[in-house]
From TrEMBL:
One of its GO terms (molecular function) is citrate synthase activity. Gene3D superfamilies: Citrate Synthase, domain 1, Cytochrome P450-Terp, domain 2. The gene is prpC_2. This is Citrate synthase. It comes from the Bacteria. Belongs to the citrate synthase family. One of its GO terms (cellular component) is cytosol.
Amino acid sequence: MNSNDILIANTDDLRSDMDYLEKTLLKGHRIDPNLYEEYDVKRGLRDSTGRGVLTGLTEVSDVCGFDVINGRKIPAEGGLYYQGINVNDLINGLKGKRFGFEETTFLLLFGRLPKKDELEHFLKVLSELEDLSGRFVRDVVMKASSSNIMNALQRCVLTLYTYDENPEDISVENALRQALELIAKLPLIAVYSYHAYRHFRKDETLLIRNPEKGRSLAENILYMLRPDGQYTELEAKVLDVALILHAEHGGGNNSTFTTHVVTSSGTDTYSAIAASIGSLKGPRHGGANLKAQGMFDDIKKSVKDWTNEDEIREYLRLILDKKAFDKTGLIYGMGHAVYTISDPREKILKSYAQKLASEKGFDDEFALYDRVERIAGEEIMTHRKMLKPVCANVDFYSGFVYTMLNIPEELFTPLFAIARITGWSAHRLEELLNAGKIIRPAYKYVGQHTEFHNRDDRN
Ligand SMILES: CC(=O)SCCNC(=O)CCNC(=O)[C@H](O)C(C)(C)COP(=O)(O)OP(=O)(O)OC[C@H]1O[C@@H](n2cnc3c(N)ncnc32)[C@H](O)[C@@H]1OP(=O)(O)O
Ligand SMILES: O=C([O-])CC(=O)C(=O)O
């Protein structure tokens, strides 16, 4: 894209008008921080102990980060249950099997694991629904390519509305059909959008390969992405595991809660899913996998001796003091709203990261990640004066794993979306089936009512 393509004109007059508007904006809109306490505002929808305000019920999954003993919250090892099944058992039970993510999708949507013949039929359904018409690829995916593939996903999902003969029908039957279509199509949209970006923005050869029937969703991603279409069994297995681990995380996480909020207004599936993709893109949520990758690139450059724990600690303190990396004060891949001692998904991904690292010659990098994980937890707690433990989350090792699978970083967060759309869909269906009330929390007005002045009388 050259500068002529940018829509906003950049004249001196406009710049000075914009400066004025920015200054005007900055004069208002500051709310006295003490008022939040005075009115007991549940900021971030949390109570005073940091626990999420109870806003719904779900059977889709259970996220456990602490025990409650005599009414007190005690930090505990993390647990995650999909439709009642411990995710560790799910991963172990699917060891050596293909189509783990597809099986998990069935479990999350329909409430139980599929029997053998049910899985076969389900795979056939997904494979039939994954087709994207040539017209859609040409007119939507290839046009106005975006450097941010999450943005491309949102645009494509919204445009699928116009390719749907029945977009507005929110009956459970139609919403299920739309959910399955989106689950099946999203991998193609993500990979093709990435290829469009490489071709139109980086002048590289355009590659569009149809998915192949009989391959799993994880296998097809690698097959469509790589110029030679080749991958090893371990690579496909690791990607399948990563997709399972990212598929669902309760109703309260930011993107799934977005699904609930938007669904509760009675709007269509495409609007709800596009909104959730927008939420997941944020660096404090799913976008953290990309940020963690950038942060590690920075650490690798800035820390001279990767084995020197003091040097690592010093650098992490600079991050927390907003003096290094993106200057937000956040160490990405660390911390969680629910988990305390551990995130069960991180442990699984870490074990695969170690395996891949020793196969692909990344042992030094793995050891660095391991050190940063330990030291960062200690430093965040000290720096933020926190009493509860801070653990690494699912995003800590995922980017590292994807890098070892030769997956480009533009696709890190889209892979999260390809997996989490399953959870969003299960929650949308749950919201529709249980005819939830429109979600509408309160905001207290803390400004002042003032008199209207005629235009000529304003100063
Ligand atoms: C898929 C996912 O969404 S997993 C999360 C991915 N996100 C990240 O990895 C980004 C880094 N982590 C974070 O920003 C946070 O830990 C979150 C957003 C995940 C959770 O935030 P919260 O629920 O507010 O966590 P918690 O209540 O434990 O935080 C307490 C304090 O510690 C700070 N803190 C928590 N994690 C971190 C971190 N990784 N780096 C620096 N400070 C942190 C918080 O900013 C918060 O300070 P505040 O009260 O002044 O806002
Ligand atoms: O639950 C949360 O707050 C964040 C999330 O989606 C996850 O960890 O997968």
